[in-house]
What does this fold into?
Amino acid sequence: MTHSDLVDIAYKWVLKNAHCGVAAKEIRCITMEQPDVIGFGSNGHSVMIEVKVSRADFLRDAKKLFRKHQWMGVGSYRAYCCPTGLIKVEELPDRWGLLYVNEKGKVKELKSVVPPNTALFLNPMDKNNAAERDIMYSILRRNY
It folds into this structure.
């Protein structure tokens, strides 16, 4: 399965399962972080999915400045999406979710991405609100 295949799967997952009414994939704009998938819901709710297809890419990702200082990143809630078994739960950064995708393209939420009670999005991560606004602006410019 390619990176592009997993991005498409994660994009659909965010719209269907992460309480996001708007999402974008592989958005490129002026922000330091260029998420593979980001979804937005009401009340500042956002979900960022980072897709990994190799161990080397996953290990490199941990060295990025906005991974070391999570308040610099985007997403009230964050997760990795990868082929089944590529990343282990115990390797995740604090409070990150994990989505496995099998060879048939089916997603299994190995570690929860968003809280189960959608009325109360409890305990969101600190995030870079300015970067999220820049991403939203970029999405709007492309669509209008």
Notes: The chain has a mean pLDDT of 89. Residues 15 and 134 are 20 Å apart (CA to CA). The radius of gyration is 14 Å. DSSP finds four helices and six strands in the chain.
